[in-house]
Structure to design on (560 residues):
């Protein structure tokens, strides 16, 4: 199967700090793809480059075979790549329904042929049907995160990038996010997840890439990655892999 | 309140105004209401950019002046053109000017934008002041427009503008304005073109402010640089929405009304030249200390608290 999203020979530096020294990642359609790495490994930078917020020094990002490296963020969104942020950023003056409505108006109209859900269905998928007319700033953190997911879904995306979506959530809430991501993948949306919680990655991801020192040091299934000596060395300094494997 | 209720309220308010005019000899009051309305229209225009997009403009007098001078200049050159037609032309010219300047002006945001608009105001006023072709500081006198038609017309246009703005901010484009103001990064991430959205708001804002300027020319039967392009005009345009509550249609309406009433009240109370500005300053400080969001949002919050307290007691 042809990849839906590809990162090719990507290099990026901030001043003297080299974040990526030529990384390659290939994500197939309908996968749940995990990207892990220690703090500062460049996970969020990678998402920023994919979304057009940052430009790479060299290399390219291909979406369905089309080079989107030089495209503007709003164009990339309209092409079908949605994103949820680590620090939750809903449009707080609007209701959840309006958050989804503005997203559909902005990007969705260009991709009506891709439309999978009505706004009402999106409210149901994200468990916001009872709160859809409350101002978002009055909602709890998990609900605000749901608003972001609803907003991303309203753009009729084929790929959604989740940046540490479990951040600040309780165990139960994390499990409900995992369930939601599985459902999204079943509905034909490719899910790319950046996470710190290994259990999260192991439970839901089909494939995982590990970023370390500007490189992808391992790619494979969660099981393969968990047993990779290079990954264990990077995470735990090679002393033990028991914690990682659990 | 949904849009139908706004329209009905608008019609009711206009009927009430006409009844008031017919049963009273309301010469001064009608004149004063019309004057307030001019700043309500301009305030609603400013609010689209300052309140809904979040870019504070300190130079809206430019659009106000363009509207006024589009009415005044043909008269100054002796052309016999329908003045009302010129008012609407003034709104369009102001919008076109906004479209042209949007490209350099909207490259920056926040404080640099504020400074940029202030600078624009200074430049345009200076050009008008030194240009004999624009009648420089002499200004232009217009023939007096029939007040019995003009005042109700200004009130009707004001009501129409308020309903239009209310309608606009509830449309997809209005939600885009709020999205750009709330979280620009996230707005971009859902496919909103930030520049286009801001430029749209700027142009509509300028059209409304230009409309107010054109009506101002008819109202005063005179245009000159300091009244139309002056810094004070910019300040009074922005003070209304700011004091009333930026980003709210009703707040802007209340704010502009309060500011103009207080301005005139202070003028009648404080005889020292320019002394009324002291009262305006005190008002600003008080509002910002009591409710930094403005009078209307402050009142809404207070009513919410009273309701909650009442519900608890029950």
């Amino acid at each position: 199967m042809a990849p839906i999203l590809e990162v090719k020979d990507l290099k990026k530096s901030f001043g003297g700090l080299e974040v990526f020294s030529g990384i390659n990642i290939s994500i197939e359609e309908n996968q749940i793809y995990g990207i892990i790495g220690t703090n500062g490994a460049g996970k969020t930078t990678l998402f920023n480059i994919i979304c057009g917020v940052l430009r790479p020094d060299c290399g390219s990002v291909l979406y369905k075979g089309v080079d989107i490296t030089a495209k503007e963020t709003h164009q990339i969104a309209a092409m079908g790549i949605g994103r949820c942020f680590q620090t939750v950023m809903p449009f707080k003056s609007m209701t959840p329904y309006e958050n989804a409505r503005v997203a559909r108006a902005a990007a969705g109209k260009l991709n009506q042929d891709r439309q999978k859900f009505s706004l009402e269905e999106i409210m149901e998928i994200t468990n916001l049907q009872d709160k859809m007319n409350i101002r978002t700033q009055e909602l709890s953190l998990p609900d605000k995160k749901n608003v972001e997911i609803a907003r991303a879904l309203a753009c009729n995306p084929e790929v959604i990038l989740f940046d540490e979506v479990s951040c600040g959530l309780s165990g139960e809430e994390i499990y409900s996010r995992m369930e939601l991501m599985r459902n999204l993948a079943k509905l034909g949306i490719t899910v790319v997840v950046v996470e710190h919680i290994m259990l999260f990655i192991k439970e839901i991801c089909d494939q995982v890439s590990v970023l370390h020192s500007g490189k992808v040091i391992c790619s494979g299934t969660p099981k393969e990655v968990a047993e990779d000596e290079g990954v264990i060395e990077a995470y735990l300094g090679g002393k033990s892999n028991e914690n990682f494997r659990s | 309140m949904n849009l139908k209720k706004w329209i009905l309220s608008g019609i009711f308010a206009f009927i009430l105004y006409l009844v008031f005019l017919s049963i009273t000899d309301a010469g001064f009051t009608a004149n004063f209401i019309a004057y307030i309305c001019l700043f309500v229209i301009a305030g609603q225009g400013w609010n689209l950019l300052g309140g809904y997009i979040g870019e504070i403009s300190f130079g809206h007098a430019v659009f106000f002046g363009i509207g006024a001078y589009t009415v005044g200049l043909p008269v100054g050159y002796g052309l016999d053109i329908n003045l009302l037609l010129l008012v609407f032309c003034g709104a369009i010219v102001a919008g076109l000017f906004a479209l042209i300047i949007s490209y350099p002006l909207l490259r920056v945001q926040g404080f640099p934008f504020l400074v940029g608009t202030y600078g624009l105001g200074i430049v345009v006023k200076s050009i008008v002041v030194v240009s004999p072709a624009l009648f420089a500081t002499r200004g232009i006198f217009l023939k007096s427009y029939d007040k019995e038609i003009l005042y109700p017309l200004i009130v009707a246009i004001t009501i129409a503008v308020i309903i239009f703005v209310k309608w606009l901010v509830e449309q997809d484009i209005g939600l885009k304005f709020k999205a750009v103001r709330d979280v620009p990064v996230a707005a971009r991430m859902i496919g909103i073109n930030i520049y286009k959205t801001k430029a749209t708001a700027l142009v509509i804002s300028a059209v409304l402010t230009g409309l107010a300027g054109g009506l101002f020319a008819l109202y005063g039967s005179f245009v000159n640089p300091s009244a139309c392009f002056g810094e004070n005009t910019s300040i009074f345009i922005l003070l209304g929405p700011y004091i009333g509550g930026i980003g709210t249609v009703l707040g802007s309406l209340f704010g502009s009304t309060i500011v103009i009433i207080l301005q005139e009240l202070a003028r009648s109370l404080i005889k020292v030249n320019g002394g009324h500005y002291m009262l305006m300053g005190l008002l600003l400080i008080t509002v910002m200390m009591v409710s930094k969001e403005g009078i209307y949002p402050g009142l809404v919050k207070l009513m919410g608290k009273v309701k909650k307290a009442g519900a608890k007691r029950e």
Chain A touches chain B through 31 residues (CB under 8 Å).
